[in-house]
Amino acid sequence: MTTGNHNLIAANDVSGTAVYGADNSKVGSIDRVMIDKRSGKVAYAVMTFGGVLGIGGSERPVPWNTLTYDTDLGGYKTSITEDQLKTAPQSQSGWENDRDWETRTHQTYGTQPYWI
Amino acid sequence: MTTGNHNLIAANDVSGTAVYGADNSKVGSIDRVMIDKRSGKVAYAVMTFGGVLGIGGSERPVPWNTLTYDTDLGGYKTSITEDQLKTAPQSQSGWENDRDWETRTHQTYGTQPYWI
């Protein structure tokens, strides 16, 4: 029985998925997803914004729970704002092993850390 | 501050990670991980076993919660048995959209489905 839920996707195929803002305009895309090895939860989407939100083309790790999959758009909608992106910590080398950096990032976006 | 927790990994880098059995011998490796788009949880590891457990080289989706990351081994340990692998549903085309197939798979492995 095929239920048509279509909720499963190979993690590698998430790379390149578009991300849309509150007004349904494309703001960027997902370069890769970061998994918490122990819990098996997706922790971050590392996104590129292409200068749309005024932060240039730099990579930004964004907490996964700022994204919601939208079947109509065929991509993710995000609740993050331009102000949040501008004030969030830069993705310095080693950020993925830096709990202090992660804590500040979640504070900026107002999100519940995945490790709690 | 680097805490050295090292829990985050790019999903794409999970591909190729070794999986070890109860006796710490390598039983196979992860080809790719499948994510539930809505919850952001890793639902399955699609594994190859290389004939070790008597099921040939075929791909098998294995519920993610049968795997535990082992920092000493640098890979995942699995609780699944050869009998479970042999009796689990084959990974027929379209399994990832087939809730009935998924239910039988979780029943075989005795695991809690990710959608509950």
List the helices and strands and how they pair.
Two copies of one chain form a homodimer.
Chain A: E1 8-10, H1 11-14, E2 18-20, E3 26-36, E4 41-48, E5 59-63, E6 67-70, E7 75-78, H2 82-87, H3 99-109
Parallel strand pairs in A: 2-7
Antiparallel strand pairs in A: 2-3, 3-4, 4-5, 6-7
Q: How many domains in all of chain A? A: 1
- Topology pattern of chain A, helix = H, strand = E: EHEEEEEEHH
Uncertain stretches of 5 or more adjacent residues of chain A = none
Proportion of residues in helical segments of chain A = 10-25%
Strand content of chain A: 25-35%
Give the end-to-end Cα distance of chain A, rounded to a whole number of Å: 37 Å
Global shape of chain A: globular
Please report the two chains with the greatest interface, counting residues with C-beta closer than 8 angstroms to the partner's C-beta: A-B, 38 and 38 residues
Please give the oligomerization state of what you see.
homodimer
Total beta strand runs of chain A: 7
Mean pLDDT of chain A: 85
Class computed from helices, strands and strand pairing of chain A? alpha+beta
Radius of gyration of chain A: 14 Å
| CATH architecture descriptor text of chain A | Roll
* CATH class category of chain A: Mainly Beta
Domain PRC-barrel (chains A, B): 7-84
Region (Disordered) (chains A, B): 81-104
Protein name (chains A, B): PRC-barrel domain-containing protein
Biased composition (Polar residues) (chains A, B): 81-95
